[in-house]
TrEMBL record, chain A:
Domain Transcription regulator PadR C-terminal: 107-168
Family annotation (PANTHER family): NEGATIVE TRANSCRIPTION REGULATOR PADR (PTHR43252:SF6), TRANSCRIPTIONAL REGULATOR YQJI (PTHR43252)
Record-annotated Transcription regulator PadR N-terminal domain positions: 7-80
Protein's name according to its UniProt entry: PadR family transcriptional regulator
Highest taxon of the lineage: Bacteria
Lineage: Bacteria, Bacillati, Actinomycetota, Actinomycetes, Micrococcales
Coiled-coil region(s): none
TrEMBL record, chain B:
Listed SUPFAM superfamilies: P-loop containing nucleoside triphosphate hydrolases
Keyword terms of this UniProt record: ATP-binding, Nucleotide-binding, Transport
Lineage: Bacteria, Bacillati, Actinomycetota, Actinomycetes, Micrococcales
Biological source species: Luteipulveratus flavus
Domain ABC transporter stretches: 12-237
Coiled-coil annotated residue ranges, if any: none
Protein name as it appears in the record: ABC transporter ATP-binding protein
GO molecular function, one term: ATP binding
Length: 178, 238
């Protein structure tokens, strides 16, 4: 996913200038890193060169000129194609927790790996409590709740792995130290 | 001993609790404290003893050894009829399912604990209606459980547990029979209402996402409390 596609998507609501796009982005995607203005303008210029957006007017309200952009037909087609194609499911093959378990077994032993996993479990649970608080906060917006849900689902997946790994530390120790 | 956080008054505690089913010990010397207004999660695999522990805390089961204290009362030493009266007034219990009386309407189900406690029908029904509305199922007052969805009947069951405004609510897998979105909505509502009311909650669950609604978690393994990893460090066990 690129910022360019995100800009195209936000412009589908109607013509906007860069400042509005930045604000809409940060509001709609609270879990994402806030966009820098420079990034927004650079992206809009690139999209303009590609013929996907076009400047429609220049606004001036108590400050600098603001170019208002709109989607072109080509931009609408590009957006529709992108929205239609599923994101490649991430393989999640890199698991830093597993690496740490193996190295703990090698460097310190089975009991230490067990203790490490239990500490990791507690750290994950603390994090899950934070996200759950965000979720139950009456002032949270639905995008914030959904972002917290996404984080919770991933932490929960890690936690299930930790619980399985806890039951297998002994077997794993035998296998990698034999 | 798992202690309540901070300096708050202890609402519920257990000391060296033991309970066996025949020769098989299910809870082996568990001690814990729950602070007033705290939500404590108890997690553990199936068979770890967490439901048995909850039944002891609720006064449903009398422990073989150890004591359960609710405020200043040692409830584990009280008679079955005293404990049963206590469950109708000061302790609310919520199970996974099968707890509503199918022949009664939602309103009658929620009013029941008050009526059993000797309240007048009109007062009991007014209170029941208020609690149904608090859980956003006021519209179901005249419906009977067989016609309700899982999420709806669980809200009614929680309203019934709260209607006596108990000091402590004990919940065993309260969302275990629900799909994840309904479960989440029920949990959000439960937490919002108990926070407002300042109720102390003990929440038994195998699900980390449900457990995360608690302020603190304790983990049971084979009937015993797992020491918190931080305590392992303190004790130098690693």
């Amino acid at each position: 996913m690129s910022n360019a596609h995100v800009m195209l998507g936000l412009l589908s609501r109607g013509q906007q200038h860069g400042y509005d796009l930045k604000r809409a982005h940060d509001e709609q995607f609270p879990a994402a890193r806030p966009l820098a203005y420079g990034q927004v303008y650079a992206t809009l210029q690139r999209l303009e060169k590609q013929g996907l957006v076009e400047p429609v007017t220049v606004e001036r309200v108590d400050g600098p000129d603001r170019t208002v952009y709109a989607l072109t037909d080509a931009g609408r087609t590009e957006l529709a194609d992108w929205l239609d194609s599923p994101e490649p499911p991430s393989p999640y093959v890199s698991n830093p927790l597993a690496v740490k378990v193996t190295l703990t077994i090698l460097a310190a032993g089975e009991q230490e790996a067990h203790t490490y996993l239990r500490r990791q479990r507690a750290a994950h649970l603390d994090r899950m409590r934070d996200y759950t608080r965000t979720k139950t906060e009456p002032s949270s917006s639905l995008p914030q709740v959904l972002a917290a849900d996404y984080a919770l689902a991933h932490l929960d997946a890690d936690l299930r792995w930790i619980d399985t790994a806890l039951q297998r530390v002994g077997a794993l120790t035998k296998e990698i130290t034999s | 001993m798992s202690t309540a956080s901070g300096e708050k008054a202890v609402a519920l505690s257990a000391r060296s609790l033991v309970y066996s089913y025949g020769a098989a010990p299910a809870v082996k010397g568990v001690s814990l404290e729950v602070a007033r207004g705290e939500i404590l999660s108890i997690t553990g695999a199936s068979g770890s003893g967490k439901s048995t522990l909850l039944l002891c805390l609720a006064g449903v089961l009398a422990p073989d050894a150890g004591e359960v204290r609710l405020g200043d009362r040692i409830i584990s030493a009280e008679s079955e009829s005293e404990r049963s009266r206590l469950r109708r007034s000061q302790v609310g219990v919520v199970f996974q399912f099968g707890q509503l009386v199918p022949e009664l309407t939602a309103l009658e189900n929620v009013a029941l604990p008050l009526l059993l406690g000797g309240a007048r029908r009109s007062a009991a029904e007014t209170a029941a209606r208020t609690w149904l509305e608090r859980f956003e199922v006021g519209g179901l007052a005249d419906a009977r459980p067989p016609g309700m969805s899982g999420g709806q009947s669980q809200r009614v069951a929680i309203a019934r547990a709260m209607v006596t405004e108990p000091e402590v609510v004990l919940a065993d897998e309260p969302t275990g029979a629900l799909d994840s979105l309904s479960g989440e909505l029920v949990m959000n509502q439960l937490v919002r209402v108990v926070r407002e009311a300042g109720t102390t909650v003990v929440l038994v669950t195998h699900d980390a996402r449900v457990s995360a609604y608690g302020d603190r978690e304790i983990h049971l393994r084979d009937g015993e409390l797992d020491p918190h990893p931080a305590d392992l460090l303190d004790a130098g066990v690693s």
